[in-house]
Design goal:
heterodimer; A: 660 residues; mainly alpha; two-stranded antiparallel ribbon; 27 helices; 5 strands; 74% helix; globular; B: 303 residues; 69% helix
């Protein structure tokens, strides 16, 4: 507790100090900000690790007394897992951000100021997961939204950034509105404290109240997490933010939505089956739509943002399987689903922040986010290339890295549901969705990694690129190592995650998580065997090739002598068959100027894929709201005489009303 | 355990022969003599002794790809059952491992193809990821159907047909649908006609062959051997579904399984001889057919 308090104090003080120093000593501000973030994160980790290791979880500890009730913090295993993820990734992003911002070409004073928001973002995320009552939670939640809003606006002079910031602010507040109502209902007018809500058990007794709270929580937390259909802010805000902020937002901030949903579900008792179905359907829609839209993108960071939607979809599929398992009384399925969801949350936090940092490193070196203008960076930026490829393989769920382990758990939960009967179709939908997502994610990440890092550079910017500074490479290497480490440690982590949700997610007692452990131990053995076989093949190959002279030549070009890097298959062409196959959903707009005549000169092809929901639902809805609002402005024209007349008319009406 | 090891050993030894069976059948239909059974072994040996040539565009990804391909396919072989003989490493959920080990192969093959910067290889890679994304869904639909039928989560127990003792007709129907769907997936995943033509000579029309266009020597030998093993794995799965008779005598089962794999080889040869390859735009339709067959099997299994 003291450690956590110290962590908050360090983050606040260093943030304010960075802000105060940013005017005269921008360099000092950055050092203050980064060291504050790292120290604060380390303190938070130190306070969370003992609970995860088996120490008793804290009961509510009052931080502050307010007129609305005390502000309490507490920590159990579920919060501890999230706190460690948030702190680790954010601390690494802070170190990376120092290198990233120093070459960013913006005003160093603005960069110094941004550290204040960065450290406040970390503090508020920690407050969210440590909160033990609705009030503390919402205060943390709101400061998290505001701090990240200011960070998104960092490059506000670039076109589109302000728009992205506003979209983010509006969506996140609409989401928060659901949460306010949800907490009011859950508190039932007496106490917002999680423990007393849990102890009173009123939510478990009243099913319709529980249903309302579940739906409100899904809407509110789903908006933050980026679930379809309220995902629209992610593809806007993540590319607009500086890369270390995108890494934090996409890697860990959206996960607070998952945390909130898990926390609320844990208070609601045994769920009805349709909750599980709802999450399975929403998760599958998010997963498939996320990866499809990612495939159609040309902007590297926008592509990654859509992949966050996809991965949140996978996490929610796992939670859906967990709920279906609890609802049908199948505790092993429930534990597999929840453990898979939590493990995937951790894994996605690691590889997605790694990928955003890799994208930032590419932007740092080339100044471009357009996938079709890059290429050949593997030789020029070997560390960025190798770590990005690791992240790409991990997010595609390939064996040997962490993404496979959590997807395996969710698959196993789905198949266990199919095999053991009861709500079989939920398992079928989940397994098939995962299969679709897996195939398309592989297509998308071979496209991204292939077009950016492999082949020949498509233009001078990638051709002259050099590797990023060490401050940026260090965190990326660390995260790539985590991708391997989390894969090896998956059996233990899943056991831990299983017990964390076993205590939190349902009141029913779970069987020993040993079965989950054994399941993952088997797959870990198989994966290790795979890695060993690959290494053996590589050793054999290099041994055989040792004495042989190798020749270097151009790539086989079918005898065509003047091949230039521009003849390479572009990322857009690579993804085009799949994009065309799903054109009903994607609605890609094509502008073609075909080559004409015997001596064609100019030809061009442009494709744009707008977010369908943004373009067809939310923008028309927003225009409708604006039109309604402008109707109101006819009444309110600033003329005092008119207002006096309104008052007069109102009084007359009221008098007539009274006479009636 | 020993019998499982023998089963893997047979796969390692006989996989290239499966390729020559296909070629002999095709030669028979074409009125030619065809190669001997040992020709693929000679080809591999010849390739393995050659000095390598690398494109100057390529990076370490291109050089790592053959080792990853071979290692992952060998690991997949470790969970493969053959007509009732379990894989040596069979465990709960091993079919997911098998599917994703092939995913790893695909990732590196495609990355190596893009690493050469060749437009042809990019084109082939693009087709590969599209078709295999569809094939994966069909494969999982089949696996779900098998899981329903056998109430099991391991490929080895799914395919040992111990559940079939009751002789229910519904099970037979599911198996026929699954075998048909898996056969289509086999043709797509192993770059056979009607999806891809392994003997075509025009780069523009290839899928798998064009992706490995720049590999040569030992690297190519490793990839070709891995492809032969992959074809063996798929044939073993299809024949284990299609041939539900189990004697219980492991030695007999294994001989029957190997013969069955070669029968699949003959079947592939016949298909390749009597069919033209499909237009590339039609291939997704074929895979959707496989997907529908798989889903029908799921529906029938649940009914």
């Amino acid at each position: 507790m003291v450690l956590f308090g110290a962590s908050l104090v360090v983050l606040f003080v260093s943030g304010i100090a960075a802000m105060l120093n940013s005017g005269r000593h921008p360099g000092r501000a950055a050092i203050l900000g980064v060291s504050g973030a790292v120290t604060g994160a380390a303190l938070a980790i130190a306070s969370a690790v003992p609970v995860l290791a088996g120490a008793p979880s804290w009961q509510a500890w009052t931080l502050w007394q307010t007129p609305l009730g005390p502000m309490n913090i507490a920590l159990d295993q579920l919060s501890a897992i999230f706190a460690i993820l948030i702190s680790t990734v954010t601390a690494l992003a802070a170190i990376y951000g120092r290198g990233y911002l120093s070459g960013h070409g913006t005003d160093p004073r603005a960069a110094g100021r941004s550290w204040c928001w960065f450290n406040l973002l970390l503090a508020s995320m920690l407050l969210v997961v440590f909160a033990a009552d609705g009030l503390t939670f919402l205060i943390g939640w709101e400061s998290m939204s505001l701090a990240s809003f200011f960070l998104v606006l960092f490059d506000h002079e670039h076109p589109g950034v302000t728009r992205a910031g506003w979209i983010y602010l509006i969506t996140t507040h609409i989401g928060a509105a659901f949460l306010f109502v949800m907490f009011m209902l859950a508190g039932n007018g007496t106490s917002l404290d999680f423990f007393s809500i849990n102890a009173a058990g009123s939510l478990r007794a009243d099913q319709s109240l529980a249903n309302t709270i579940f739906l409100l929580a899904l809407a509110g937390f789903g908006t933050k997490a980026g679930l379809v259909p309220t995902h629209i802010w992610l593809p806007e805000a993540h590319p607009a933010a500086p890369s270390h902020v995108s890494a934090v937002m996409s890697g860990v901030m959206i996960k607070t939505g998952i945390y909130g949903l898990l926390r609320i579900i844990s208070m609601l008792g045994v769920p009805p089956l349709w909750w599980g179905w709802t999450l399975v359907v929403i998760g599958s829609a998010s997963g498939i739509l996320g990866v499809l839209f990612a495939l159609a993108q040309h902007d590297l960071k926008r592509l990654l943002a859509y992949h966050s939607i996809e991965n949140i979809g996978i996490i929610v599929l796992g939670m859906g399987i967990g709920l279906v398992g609890s609802a049908t009384g199948n505790h092993l399925v429930a534990m597999l689903g929840y453990a898979g969801a939590i493990l995937h949350t951790l894994n996605h936090g690691v590889f997605k922040s790694l990928l955003f940092m890799g994208a930032g490193s590419v932007i740092h070196a080339t100044g471009s986010r357009d996938i079709d203008r890059l290429g050949g960076l593997m030789k020029r930026m070997p560390v960025t290339g190798a770590t990005f490829l690791t992240g790409a393989a991990a997010i595609s769920g390939l064996p040997g890295l962490n993404g496979f382990m959590s997807e395996f758990l969710i698959y196993a939960g789905a198949f266990m549901l199919i095999v053991s009967g009861g709500a079989i179709w939920a398992g079928v939908v989940t397994a098939l969705s995962l299969a679709i997502i897996g195939g398309l994610a592989l297509a998308c990440f071979t496209k991204a990694a292939g077009a950016v890092f492999l082949g020949e550079p498509r233009g001078p910017a990638p051709a002259n690129a050099t590797e990023s500074p060490r401050a940026m490479l260090g965190p990326m290497i660390t995260l790539a190592v985590f991708c391997v480490g989390l894969a090896l440690g998956a059996p233990w982590l899943a056991k831990m995650a299983g017990t964390a949700t076993g205590m939190a997610a349902t009141a029913a007692s779970f069987p020993d998580s040993l079965q989950v452990f054994n399941l993952l131990a088997d797959i870990t053995v198989a994966t290790v065997l795979l890695v060993l076989l690959v290494l053996a093949a590589a050793l054999l190959r290099s041994h055989v090739l040792k004495g042989r002279a190798s020749t270097v030549s151009p790539t086989w070009d079918c005898g065509y002598a003047a091949a230039s890097p521009r003849v390479q298959y572009s990322a857009s062409s690579f993804a085009d068959p799949i994009v065309r196959m799903f054109r009903i959903v994607l609605r890609t707009r094509r502008h073609v100027q075909a080559p004409e005549g015997f001596f064609p000169t100019a030809a061009s092809l442009e494709t744009h894929t707008d977010d369908v929901l943004m373009a067809r639902v939310f923008e028309p809805a927003a225009r409708g709201v604006t039109r309604l609002a402008s109707l109101v402005s006819r009444l309110q024209q600033g003329s005092t005489h008119l207002y006096l007349m309104y008052i007069f008319v109102t009084i007359i009406i009221l008098m007539i009303w009274n006479l009636r | 355990m020993i019998i499982s090891a023998i089963q893997v050993l047979l796969a390692l030894l006989l996989a290239p022969a499966l390729l020559s069976i296909i070629r002999i059948v095709k030669a028979f239909f074409g009125g030619r003599h065809g190669p001997t059974l040992l020709q693929p072994y000679r080809d591999l040996w010849k390739l393995a002794r050659k000095a390598p040539v690398y494109s100057r565009t390529t990076s370490w990804v291109f050089r790592a790809s053959p080792s990853v391909t071979l290692g992952a396919v060998l690991a997949a072989l470790a969970v493969l059952p053959l007509c009732g003989v379990p894989g040596p490493l069979a465990f709960t959920g091993d079919f997911i491992f098998l599917a994703y080990a092939f995913g790893l192969v695909r990732f590196f093959t495609v990355a190596a193809a893009l690493d050469t910067g060749s437009p042809f290889e990019g084109m082939g890679a693009s087709r590969e990821v599209q078709f295999s994304a569809l094939a994966e869904v069909a494969l999982f639909a089949c696996l779900i159907a098998l899981a329903i039928l056998s109430s099991s989560m391991s490929l080895s127990t799914m395919l040992d047909h111990s559940w079939a003792a009751a002789g229910n007709m519904r099970g037979e129907g599911v198996l026929i649908l699954v075998a048909a769907a898996l056969m289509l997936v086999l043709l797509a995943e192993n770059a056979r006609i009607p999806v891809d033509d392994p003997t075509t000579h025009l780069e523009l029309t290839m899928i798998h062959e064009v992706m490995i266009l720049d590999h040569c020597g030992l690297d190519l030998a490793m990839i070709e051997y891995a492809s032969a093993l992959k074809l063996w794995i798929w044939s073993a799965i299809v024949i284990s579904v299609a041939l539900p008779m189990r004697t219980g005598d492991a030695a007999f089962d294994i001989v029957a399984g190997v013969c069955g794999v070669f029968v699949i080889g003959i079947l592939i040869g016949v298909i390749e001889s009597i069919m033209a390859r499909l237009k590339l735009l039609k291939v997704p339709q074929l895979l959707v057919v496989a997907m529908v067959l798989g889903l029908l099997a799921v529906g029938l299994g649940l009914r």
